[in-house]
Amino acid sequence: MQILQTDIIVVGGGGAGLRAAIAAAEAAPQLGITLLSKVYPMRSHTVAAEGGAAAVTLRSDSAAAHFHDTVSGGDWLADQPVVEFFVKQAYRELVQLEHWGCPWSRQQDGNVAVRRFGGMKTERTWFAADKTGFHILHTLFQTSLKYPAIKRLDEYFMLDLLRAGDQVVGVLALALNSGELVQIQAKSVILATGGAGRVFHYNTNGGIVTGDGMALAYRHGVALRDMEFMQYHPTGLPGSGILITEACRGEGAVLLNKHGKRYLQDYGLGPETPLGQPQNKQMELGPRDKLSQAFWHEQQAGRCGDYNGHAVVYLDLRHLSRAHLQQRLPFICELAKAYVDIDPAQEAIPIRPAVHYTMGGIATDINCQTSLPGLYAVGECASVGLHGANRLGSNSLTELLVFGRVAGEQAAHYASQCPPADSKALSVQSEMSQRWLNRRFGTNTTDSVAQLRHDMTLAMEQGCGIYRTGEGLAQCQQQLLGLQQRYQQLKVTDRSKVFNSELLQYLELGFGLDVALAICSAAMARTESRGAHQRLDSGMTARNDAGFLCHSQLYYKAHNLPHLSWQAVQISSLPPAQRSYSADNVSATNSVDSTPGTQP
Amino acid sequence: MTDYQLLIQRYDPEHDNEPRLQRFTVPGDHTTSVLDALLYVQQKRDVTLGLRWSCRMAICGSCGVMVNGIPKLGCKTFLRDYHSDITIEPLAHFAVEKDLIVDMTQFLAHLSAIKPYLINDYSGTALHKQTPTQLAKYQQFSNCINCGLCYSACPQFGLNPEFLGPAAITLAQRYNLDSRDNGKAARMPQLNGKNGAWGCTFVGFCSDVCPKQLDPAAAVNQAKVESAKDFIISMFKP
User: Fold this and answer.
1) Can you give the residue ranges of the 2Fe-2S ferredoxin-type domain (chain B) (predicted)?
2) Are residues A225 and A244 in the same domain?
3) Which of A427, A455, A484 lies at the terminal end of a domain, its last residue?
4) What is the pLDDT of residues B145-177, one digit of tens each?
5) Minimal-distance CA residue of chain B relative to A92
């Protein structure tokens, strides 16, 4: 088995991983950094983010306002010291990206332009047309090429973490183009492996978003935190789930039901704003959880249209000029044309909610450090405590930058001081993994990786969707346990070494099943409604601060249900209050009865 | 649902001496993409099929393949547009690693070679100002998704893999045209060399196949002008 030695391993070549690698290279140029990713960095899912990145920019705006929006947007489940740090660092990081060449959209005078975004009380979202994630990712990737200390291992899949006692001292990886295992020894490891959206059926996420890093940290005893909070983005294309950015609504798009009527005013987001005059935080600029929940109610009431068998509502951009659409939303025009054959200047786009973002993840402190010495986590795979029960659009791209930097600097600091690990123990662990891997191959009578994955994603969609019930969750949990048993019997039938997709998908499925069970188990335990986690069971439809103003933490138990504990939320300056997105008190009061989960 | 006939090039380096075409029948409707069809084959017919993909929305650049001889993104090419056999092969001009997976090492080396990052002396903390007009000069060229289709379309890259190729030259222009950049002098040696812009014979097929309508051929042509100016200036320098 090949053995490589480095100082810091970054797993994942998306925005968080690249930012961390650059930060480490700048903080400690003498250290070796290995950036390992199962895909070429520019394929990472950061590439698909469209709308923008938030930072306080206008003179009329303030860190306190961004803090308030984020904490209330997260239904008070965010750790407030983390949010305070984030909003203060945000602007500096976006400027840093500008210095590295990011083609931010500009105003006539040459200053950076900002746009409206859901749940934000003022314009503070920087954007690069409607390909912000793409430009951030490519800017970071191209900039990373300047640093000779950063060595890439493209298309290497992390099979396991290497441990010396409690300490994480490297990664065991599978070289996808040869099928060989490689032992990479390091002093610190940063996980930046992205979310787990692909454990659901309908989602905006790319095929690579399978929760690998979450599952590995979890199996090694690190808690997964707040996993019950999965974000459904309100505007995905029917069937494929392809993302239609919130920036459409920032630019003034409205949502219509099958009768051509606006409906968000019926769900505590009113009053209805005139066409072409979007108001921050109201109506279509409410937060994602509320909008996805409103869709669910429209569907229940029979007011959704049909697109190829999918219930849909309509995103209407027709009142915006074609020139404006081409300047601000060119990618949306391209996507709508290619995937639903619609010209948004002439016809409303059929859309429906789709799983988009994993709010929870690997529990870390404000320094991105996990409970295992030497192990850091950052970005969507991590739960640093920023998003609470519902992430605001445009906070996550900034998160990659702010905390990517923190993770890189912290991991570099740790690596500079840490003594080398005992490599003999690592060889034993690596040989065991090689033997484990060799035993995965065989024949199947009926099951297949694709079938099991299909069953998992449907179970999650049914049991852990926008609204949840105790009964549905219990059924989902049983299904997942059954799937895990089937997985134990499952073999990889393709024995080839070079780019063995079945083996890769088999490993990803194993990770996904662990993460799925964590999501479902956390959702069962939280018998209240908060943010993106909404229960329909009687007595659970409202937020319950007395019982649940705390993070769920799940600990892995092999072949069993996870162990759960609760961790108090850190509240520094903003005590819990009602979450309101209505400028119209009458409408807000009326909506309390019809909208489960809204605090009276 | 209609049945479509796919002929997929297969090559397993552990067993095959040479590539072969294998026929699959795939059900599809008006929304089915070539990528959807390939994933259907992998999930339902043959788990050993090798391909790259991720985003399904023409932004990650993974799923480039030849469809009836033309470089295409699998996710943005639809079965509905084909009425007889659909032949799917790996991207031309790259070494095949397995089935539809090609070796992108050379491509990445070319991207790195042109120093694709801002080069300047600026060390302040304030934003650079950049007007929409200045942004527009390079904006189009910053939209490259690195899918490699233009390399498959480029006869020169087919003949000489050392040729920087359309995407790398476009990326060089993207930075050379950026009002915040002073790095042109550092990039010109690459663009001036025999494997730089002058390697292009202006076939222009790269621009035809670009799934993002970047017009790499225009970027290459601009680079030739820059290179000619660079040459003339160098003649008057001591």
Assistant:
1) 4-94
2) no
3) A427
4) 999 999 999 999 999 999 999 999 999 999 999
5) B125
Q: Examine the pLDDT at A589 and tell me if it is beyond 70.
A: no
Can you give A113-150 as a three-state secondary structure string?
CEECCCCCCCCCEECCCCCHHHHHHHHHHHHHCCCCCE
The yes-or-no answer on residue A288 being catalytic is yes
Predicted pLDDT at B212: 96
Burial annotation A226-256 (CB, 10 A radius, 16+ → b, else e): bbbbbbbbbbbbbbbbbbbbbbbbbbbbbbb
Contacts of B115 in chain A (CB under 8 A): 145
**A575 in any annotated domain:** no
**B22 and B64 in one domain?**
yes
Model confidence at A437, in pLDDT bands (50, 70, 90)?
very high
Alpha helices in A266-351 (DSSP H): 288-300, 322-328, 330-340
Instruction: Write phi, then psi, for A162 (nearest 5 degrees).
Output: -95, 135
Q: How far is CA A515 from the centre of its chain?
A: 13
Do A420 and A460 fall into the same domain?
A: no
Instruction: Tell whether residue A261 is among the known ligand binding residues.
Output: no
Question: Does residue A2 surpass a pLDDT of 70?
Answer: yes
**Catalytic residue among A288, A352, A530, A535, which?**
A288
Residue where one domain finishes, among candidates B102, B122, B144:
B102
Whole-number Å distance between alpha carbons of A268 and A283: 8
Q: pLDDT at position A425, please?
A: 84
Residue in B54, B173, B176 to test binding to A, most A beta-carbons within 10 Å = B54
Both A256 and A138 in one domain: the answer is no
- Residue A239 marked as a ligand binder: no
Residue A597 pLDDT > 70, yes or no? Answer: no
Asked if A290 and A205 sit in the same domain, the reply is no
Q: Cis peptide leading into A576, omega within 30 of 0? A: no
- Tokens standing for A444? 């199947």
Domain span including residue A509? 438-559
Residues B11 and B85 in one domain: yes
Reported as type and span, the H/E element at residue A171 is strand A167-175
Comparing CA positions, the residue from A494, A475, A485, A553 lying closest to residue A513 is: A485
What's the whole-number mean pLDDT along residues A533-547?
Answer: 97
Confirm whether A579 is domain-assigned: no
pLDDT at A445: 85
Give the residue numbers spanning the domain of B217: 105-236
Does the beta-carbon distance from B129 to A111 stay under 8 Å?
yes
- CATH code for the domain of A152: 3.50.50.60
Last residue of a domain, one of B102, B128, B150: B102
**Residue of chain B minimizing CA distance to A450:** B43
**In a shared domain, residues A330 and A283:** yes
Note the pLDDT of residue A422. 77
- Residue ranges for chain B with pLDDT beneath 70: 238
Which tens digit of pLDDT belongs to each residue from A185-221?
Answer: 999 999 999 999 999 999 999 999 999 999 999 999 9
Share of chain A above pLDDT 70, in %: 97
The domain total for chain A is 3
